[in-house]
Amino acid sequence: MNYTTKVVQVTNVSPSTTSEQMRTLFGFLGTIEELKLFPPDDSPMPVTSRVCFVKFQEPESVGVSQHLTNTVFVDRALIVVPFAEVKKAKAAPSLMAQSGPLPANRGL
Which residues form a coiled coil (predicted)? Predict the structure, then answer.
């Protein structure tokens, strides 16, 4: 299967999992360009589950990484799915000039 995306979303990640552990696991499947774990490792927020996004150098790694779905990692079965990359749209200069906060209501 040909993938146009290089990103996978990994859900049901154990709260005790670190980004370094995720990098080690997915690093066996291809070269990682970027990895983000939410909430971050240093977050004081208590969580019941985490989400990780892994961007590979090659789109072929996306298909291979899906084979990790239902693999128990730390204490949870991971769910790995391809994630569509969104290109940032460039706004027209006229729209940017008009954007900004709404004017305050000055009373009628």
Answer: none
Number of domains, the chain: 1
In a domain, 36, yes or no: yes
| Tens of pLDDT, residues 62-85 | 999 999 999 999 999 999 999 987
- CA distances in angstroms from 15 to 35, 38, 55, 76, 92, listed in the order given: 16, 10, 21, 10, 42
Q: What is the CATH number of the domain that holds 23?
A: 3.30.70.330
Distance, in Å, from the CA atom of 20 to the CA atom of 2, rounded to the nearest integer, reads 28
SS3 content of the chain, % helix, strand, coil (to 5): 20, 30, 50
**What is the rounded CA–CA span in Å between residue 35 and residue 44?**
20
Structural domain harbouring 40: 7-82
